[in-house]
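During the reporting period, we have paired protein sequences with C-alpha cells. One record among many follows, to show the layout:
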Amino acid sequence: MYFNEPLSMLQKFAEVMEYHNLLVEANHVEDEALRLIYVSTFILGQYHASATKRVAKPFNPILGETFELESPEFRYFAEQVQHHPPVSACYAYNKNHDYQYWSNSHIKTQFWGSSLEIIPIGLSHVVLNKFHEEYIISRPNSTAHNIIFGNIYIEHSGKLICEKISKNNELVPAQERLKLTLEFKRGGWTRKNMAVVSGSIPVRPGSRYSWQVYGKWTDKITATNEETGQAITVWQANPLPHNSAQMYHLTHFALQLNYRPDNLLPLLPPTDSRLRPDQRALEQGELELATKEKHRLEEKQRHAGRLRQERNEQHKAKYFEQIEDQDTGEVYYKFSRDYWQDREKLDWQHLDNLFSDPEPHSESKIE
C-alpha cells in the first residue's frame, strides 16, 4: 500500500488559493465586521481541500524546494526554508493589488494510540490594500482517526481566530481589536456535529447586535446580521470531481497543481515541486519507481546535510528571511527576494539542482 498522494506539501499548502476571491471580496466590502468574516473564511476554505476521505500524505518537501502558482488573477510562491523542524514559507498577492497573503507552515504532532493529532504553529497574515488593514489568523488542530484499524478520516477541531491588528497602517491596541473566533466542533461518537463551524462578531464595536457565522467546512458558510436580518452565503465549497475516489479525493484545483505544460517547463527553476521524479512516478502509477526515487532524494538530502555540518554551514533560504514581527512578536520568514523577477530573467544560478541524479544508473524515463 502506498501512503502518499502525488503532491508535495508545498503544493498542498497552495490549495488555500482556490478561494482567493474571498480576499478580493473583502477588499471591496465597507462593513469592517464583514471584512473580517471574509478573511476568516478564506483560511477556512483550505480545510475543504483536506476532506474527510482525503487521507493520503503529501510528499515531504526537500530543503530548498520551491513551488510557484500563477493564474490570471494572482501569484503564489513557496519555499521549504527549514528541515528540522520542517518549515514552509509562502507569499501571495493578486494582480489588481487587492490583497497580500503570507504564512509559515510548521506543525507539531501527537500520537494518541489510534489517532494522530496535528497542531499548526505560527500565524497566517492577510493585508487588504484598500483599507490598509492587516489581519492575523491562527488555525485549529487536525486529527487523523483510525490510523491503525478501521476507516481513516480527518477531523478539524478547536478554534480559528482572526483579528485585525492594524488599520490605516497603524497598530490597533489589543483591547480594541475586532476579532472573530470560529469554533470547529468535534463530531463525537455520533458525529452529529461533524464539520460544524460557528462564531459571532459585533456588527460594529460596542454594538449589542452581531453577525452570526455558521456552517460546515465541508459544504458552506453563512453569515447573518442580527440587526438587519440580512443573510449571506460567504463561502460555498466547489464540487469534487465525480471520480475523485480514483484520484486520491483531490479537488479540481489540486489536480492542476502538478500540471507542467510544454510552455511552462522552460520557465521553472530546478527546485520546483513539479520536477520531483518520485511524485511524478506516483502520478503515473509507477509505484516501484516512486519508492526508489523518494528514497534517492531523501538520501541526497541527508548527504547535503552532512556536508553542511562538516563545513559548519547553515542552510540559508533563497527567497525568505527570518525576522521577528514587531507587532506580534512572531518569528517568521518574510518574502525578501523577488522570485518573479528571477523567473523573468531565468536567473536560477543561486539555486541547487535538487532532483537530479548524479549517478548514471537512474532509469527514470519520466517526461
